[in-house]
Amino acid sequence: MTVAAERIDRLENLARAAAKAGDEDRAREYVRLARRIAERNRLTLPRTFRRFTCDECDTYLVPGENARVRLQRGHVVITCSCGAHARYPYDT
Ligand SMILES: [Zn+2]
């Protein structure tokens, strides 16, 4: 794992912890920072990161807190509290 990948990993954990503590603003800052690091280093963000962050507002999504998760014909649909939807093929 590269230094950049480790930083992204750490930021994802921080974002999750902040979001769970109800501090969405701080979580958003961690998400943005991680996105920037990934971009600069041409890294693909981890799948968990992509699934649990909103593409529209960078909020770290916590199902049941600030996100709704629904299953729909073979897809998982995550709705952020900002109203944005993200659809993923259903897999585990
Ligand atoms: Zn959003």
Brief digest:
The protein has 92 residues and is α+β, with helices and mostly antiparallel strands. It has helices spanning 3-20, 24-40, 47-51, and strands spanning 67-72, 75-80, 85-89.
Kindly describe this structure.
By secondary structure, the protein is of the alpha+beta class. It has one domain. Helix content is 43%, strand content 18%. It has 3 helices and 3 strands; from the N terminus they run H-H-H-E-E-E. The chain has a 3-stranded antiparallel beta sheet with strand order 1-2-3, with no helix packed on it. A hairpin with a 2-residue loop joins strand 1 and strand 2. Helix 1 packs antiparallel against helix 2. The protein starts with a helix and ends with a strand. The mean pLDDT is 95. Bound molecules: zinc ion. The site of zinc ion (ZN) has 7 residues, from loops. It is found in: Cytoplasm. Pfam families: Rpr2.
